[in-house]
Amino acid sequence: MTQKNQQILLARRPSGAVDERDFRLVETDVPQPAEGQFLVRNLFLSLDPYMRGRMSDAKSYAKPAEVGEVMVGGAVGEVVASRHPKFKPGDKVEGPFGWQLYALTDGKGVRKIEDRGIPLSAYLGVLGMPGVTAYIGLLDIGQPKAGDTVVVSAASGAVGGVVGQIARIHGCRAVGIAGGADKCRFAVEELGYDACVDYKAGRLDEELRRAVPSGVDVYFDNVGGEISDAVLLRMNAFSRIPLCGLISEYQHPEPRGLRNVRSLLVNRIKLQGFIVSDHLQRWPAALADLSRWVSEGKIKYRETVAEGLRNAPAAFIGMLSGKNLGKQVVKLS
Q1: What is the pLDDT of residue 1?
Q2: Which of 1, 102, 204, 303 measures 20 to 30 Å from 27, CA to CA?
Q3: Which residues are paired to 111 by β-bridges?
């Protein structure tokens, strides 16, 4: 092949907020597959909050990205050359291919995508890791019952947007929390939330109290910090909190932490952090249900699309500050 590969490397570990100088764009030769490998031309790159944690070398649930190496991340693409018995040129695939135009892989962690008339980028969002995260976190950990009130922070995001719709499918009242009138309007009018509280309006406690008059049975927490403290004051006895993310703290070297911890005790709340990759046995059922709900129109989704690999760092920084609506992806082709 005469094409060149472009890659974005982790140039340095950020201290505090991520900066575009933390990344470096390089050009390399396109690699050729050895026996048991295949080459993927990436078409869409996924940008997700967890990547901020991978940029740090602090102890975590996964190995950090290495300085000088390709930035970690999922992507969807097309097999263009193969010496692997289970993958052939033309196959559409999703996997941990990283921030680059071409990726060489042995197939570990890669899934084939069947042609169902659904855009490929959806397999990075509602039909990918974020959708499965929403499904497992809400249904397995949150365990909602019909009639429950489910509150979701970052309600217009890739995960939160799916959580609210699954809650509604299961007969729950879904209340979102999002930043800005436009995001709240999207959550209610397009995603079907029963109500949405705009935390940027400066009336979080008052508006939340009005939105959940019967209290909160399940709080799907994507953000932590002040928003989670406000929700803790509205939790019902024996309620559940699936702790999915802490995006309010990812850009700050000194975490704020929770202050209304007393509510966990007096309300006998179950709070459980979870990582979706710990639940691989649940992925097939989750993806089957999510695919059916998308096909039936019961789950809707929105994407924010950046154009070109070189714009991935700026799009990633924008996502961390809440500039995206729905799932953030980068179109590479």
Answers
A1: 46
A2: 303
A3: 94
Q: Which residue has the higher pLDDT, 116 or 125?
A: 125
- Residue 79: which of 91, 67, 95 has the closest Cα? 91
Q: What is the pLDDT of residues 166-222, one digit of tens each?
A: 999 999 999 999 999 999 999 999 999 999 999 999 999 999 999 999 999 999 999
The C-alpha atoms of residue 292 and residue 286 are separated, in whole angstroms, by: 10
Strand partners, 243: 221, 273
How far is residue 177's CA from residue 10's CA, in Å, rounded to a whole number? Answer: 32
Burial of 94 (0-12, 13-18, 19+ CB in 10 A): buried
- For residue 106, the model assigns a pLDDT of 97
Band the pLDDT of 2: cuts 50, 70, 90.
low
CB 44 within 8 A of CB 330: yes
- Amino acid occupying residue 284: P
Measured between alpha carbons, how far is 228 from 261 in angstroms, rounded to an integer?
A: 10
Domains of the chain: 4-125+302-331 (3.90.180.10), 129-277 (3.40.50.720)
Burial classification of residue 282, based on how many CB atoms lie within 10 Å of its CB (0-12 exposed, 13-18 middle, 19 or more buried): middle
**Strands 23-29, 4-10: parallel, antiparallel or unpaired by DSSP?**
antiparallel
Residue with tokens 């190496």: 69
Tokens of 89: 């040129």
Q: For residue 168, give the amino acid letter.
A: R
Q: Are 297 and 306 in contact (CB under 8 A)?
A: no
Q: Rg for the chain (alpha carbons), in Å? A: 20
In one-letter notation, the amino acid at residue 59 is K
Both structure tokens of 160: 């939160």
Q: How many angstroms separate the CA atoms of 125 and 285, rounded? A: 16
pLDDT at 16: 87
- The torsion region of residue 134 among left (phi > 0), alpha (psi -120 to 50) and beta comes to alpha
